[in-house]
Amino acid sequence: MSTAVITTLLVIAAVLGIKGCIKRLYSGCCKASGEKMPKRLRVKDKDLSHYPYEKVLKVDGMSCGICSVRVENALNALEGTYARVDLDRGQADVYMKEDTGDEALRDAVREAGYTVYRINRIK
C-alpha cells in the first residue's frame, strides 16, 4: 500500500515538473510568470573603437530573452559601458571607456538578480 502511495506521489511530481519545463521552454522562465519584455536601455555610443577596455562576464541564471535584457540593461546603466549579452553562451561582452572594476560589474549584475561567476579581461 505505501509503495503505491509513494509511486503515485512520484508520478505526480514528475508530471508537474515536466509540465513546468515545457512551459518554460516555449515561453521563457520570466514569461511563464506573465512578465513582459523590458525595454532595452539605449546606448548612445555603439562605436566599439571608443571603448578601449573589454571584459567577458560569465553569468549564471539567465534562461530566456527577458533575463538577457535585464543583465544587458544593468550593465548598460553603468557610465561609459556598452554591453551585449549572448544568452546561448551565458555571457555578457562588456565594452568600457574607462576600466570599470570587476566588483562594480558584479554588483550591477547581482542587483539585476543574476550571478557573475567569472570575468575575463580581453583588453
Description:
The protein has 123 residues and is an alpha+beta fold. It is 39% helix and 22% strand. It contains three helices and four strands, in the order αβαββαβ. The chain has helices at 2-27, 65-76, 102-111; strands at residues 53-60, 81-86, 91-96, 115-121. Strands 2-3-1-4 form a four-stranded antiparallel beta sheet, with helices on one face. It is elongated, with a radius of gyration of 19 Å. It starts with a helix and ends with a strand. The model has no long low-confidence stretch (mean pLDDT 85). InterPro entries: HMA_dom, HMA_dom_sf. GO terms for molecular function: metal ion binding. It comes from Clostridium porci.
Largest sheet: 4 strands, antiparallel
**How many DSSP H or I helices?**
3
Number of domain modules: 2
Q: Give the percentage of residues in beta strands.
A: 15-25%
Low-confidence stretches: none
Number of strands: 4
Helix-strand category: alpha+beta
| CATH architecture classification of the largest domain | 2-Layer Sandwich
The multimeric state of the shown protein is single chain
CA-CA gap between termini: 65 Å
**CATH-defined topology of the largest domain:** Alpha-Beta Plaits
Overall mean pLDDT: 85
Relative helix content: 25-40%
Rg, please? 19 Å
Query: In order across it, which strands form the biggest sheet?
Result: 2-3-1-4
Q: Just give the CATH class of the largest domain.
A: Alpha Beta
Overall geometry: elongated
Give the helices and strands as they follow along the chain.
HEHEEHE
Organism: Clostridium porci
Domain HMA: 53-117
Pfam family, one: HMA
InterPro entries: HMA_dom, HMA_dom_sf
